[in-house]
Structures are given as C-alpha cells and as structure tokens.
C-alpha cells in the first residue's frame, strides 16, 4: 500500500523513485526493482551511482551472474580509488564468479520437503542429524503448541500480541522414505524460553543446545540423556 501510494511522488522526485526501487528489492520484487533502477539509469540526468550497485544486486539475486559482474564493474568505475565500498563490491564480483563456476558442476545434494508431519507453515530450522541413528533427525521450530505459549519480547505471557518461542523436536523415517510426526523433546529440555539445537558430540552421548529469553542472548547447555 505504501509503495502504491508513493507513485505520484516518484514521478517527480528522484530520491523517492530510488527509495521505492530499493523497497522492491528488499521485498524480493526483483522484476519491479530492476525496471525502476534501469529507468533511473536511462532517464535521469544524473542518476545516483547506487542505481548501478542495486541493479547488480538484483541480477545477482536472479542468478544472472554475468550481467551482475558487468554492472558491479560499472559501479566500481564511478568510485574513487580509496572508496571503502570497492573492497565490498569486489567480494560480490568474486561471489558471482563462483556462482558461474558452480552452475556447471553436478549437484552434490538435493533439496526435498520433508512432508507435512515435519514441515509446516511455521519456522523449522537448525537441523542436526543423530550420531547414533541414521534415520533420526533433530531440529528446532517456532510453532503453535510450543511450551510457554505466546510471549512478548520480555518473556511474559501475551496471548494477543505475543509470539511462540522455539522448542526442540525430533523425527525419524518410518518405512522406506516417509518422515514421521515431529515430537517435542522432554520438558526438562524444552521450556518457555527459546531452545535451539546446536550439535552432538562425536559419539552422540552429549547434546549441545541454546537456551535464552531472546534468540540473541542466552546460555549454551549440554544434556547427557541420563535419567534423573
């Protein structure tokens, strides 16, 4: 709605048009962003140099690595030799070169959805394979039903505006290839705080996980699976 409402302003305001294009890029509306950046490069008397930078970023995000490299270099030509952005942009050029090379290599792995018993409309992340069972996977998820219910940023219950915190889960293959229902780990591990899977030790006897009231601050804990 904000982008649509800004159309009249962007007809005459160069900065507003540029910011609208950046917004489209940040929202992953790549075709719209590309059209707006190219319009500024073509029609503006003195377009912002960053129009070339973002055009390259759009091509990069589209995996059109050759075009991205060309436009990154167009942007570099407009920078002074001591501009700190030069090093950052050259790193992006190298990433594009790696992308071109990888396009012609055979894939070493495939990506498949694990099915509705595991993958949901909510967040599943931090997967860790079991060290002892080849058919078992651990992961973290933020989803309804997690211990503690909805909570605000301070960790207090808030069923109206709060968010669920992450808990740890496990799943295993049933039959030939079907992943079974995700099961929450024990309540001595999961709590109203965030819990995030990190890893196991080499023999799988120790679990390392994160616990905290925010995803950025907390403790790294261990569990040895010994019964209390």
Structure characterization notes:
It is a single chain. The chain is α+β, with helices and mostly antiparallel strands and 228 residues long. It folds into two domains: 2-103, Alpha Horseshoe (Serine Threonine Protein Phosphatase 5, Tetratricopeptide repeat); 123-223, no CATH class. 34% of the residues lie in helices and 23% in strands. The chain has helices at 2-5, 7-10, 14-26, 30-43, 50-61, 65-76, 85-103; strands at residues 123-129, 136-142, 150-151, 163-164, 167-174, 178-179, 183-184, 194-200, 207-214, 217-223. The strands form three sheets. Strands 1, 2, 5, 6 and 7 form a five-stranded antiparallel β-sheet that branches. Strands 8-9-10 form a three-stranded antiparallel β-sheet, with no helix packed on it. Helix 3 (14-26) runs antiparallel to helix 4 (30-43) and helix 6 (65-76) packs antiparallel against helix 7. The longest helix has 19 residues, at 85-103. The radius of gyration is 24 Å and the shape is elongated. The mean pLDDT is 91.
What would you say about this model in short?
By secondary structure, the protein is α+β, with helices and mostly antiparallel strands.
| N-to-C CA distance | 56 Å
Mean pLDDT: 91
Major sheet details? 5 strands, antiparallel
CATH class group of the largest domain: Mainly Alpha
Fraction of residues in H or I helices = 25-40%
Secondary-structure element string: HHHHHHHEEEEEEEEEE
| Uncertain parts | none
From the alpha carbons, calculate the radius of gyration and give it in angstroms. 24 Å
For the record, the CATH architecture of the largest domain stands as Alpha Horseshoe
The general outline is: elongated
Q: What is the third-level CATH name, the topology of the largest domain?
A: Serine Threonine Protein Phosphatase 5, Tetratricopeptide repeat
Specify the CATH homologous superfamily of the largest domain. Tetratricopeptide repeat domain
Total of domains: 2
| Residue share in β-strands | 15-25%
Counting DSSP E segments of at least 2 residues, the number of strands comes to 10
């Amino acid at each position: 709605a904000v982008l649509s409402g800004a159309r009249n302003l962007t007809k005459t305001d160069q900065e507003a048009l540029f910011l609208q294009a950046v917004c489209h890029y940040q929202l992953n509306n790549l075709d719209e962003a590309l059209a707006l950046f190219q319009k500024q490069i073509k029609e503006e008397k003195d377009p912002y140099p960053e129009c070339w930078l973002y055009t390259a970023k759009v091509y990069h995000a589209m995996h059109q690595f050759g075009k991205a490299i060309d436009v990154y270099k167009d942007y570099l030509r407009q920078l002074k030799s001591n501009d700190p952005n030069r090093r950052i942009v050259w790193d992006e050029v190298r990433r594009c070169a790696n992308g071109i090379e990888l396009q012609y290599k055979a894939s070493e792995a495939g990506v498949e959805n694990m099915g509705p018993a595991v993958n949901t409309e909510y967040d599943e992340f931090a997967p860790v394979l079991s060290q002892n069972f080849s058919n078992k996977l651990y992961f973290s998820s933020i989803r309804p039903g997690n211990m503690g219910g909805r909570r605000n940023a301070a960790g207090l219950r808030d069923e109206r505006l709060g968010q669920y915190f992450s808990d740890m889960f496990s799943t295993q293959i049933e039959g030939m290839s079907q992943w079974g229902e995700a099961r929450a780990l024990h309540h001595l591990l999961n709590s109203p705080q965030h819990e995030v899977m990190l890893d196991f030790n080499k023999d799988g006897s120790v679990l390392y996980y994160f616990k905290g009231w925010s995803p950025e601050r907390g403790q790294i804990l261990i569990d040895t699976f010994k019964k209390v």
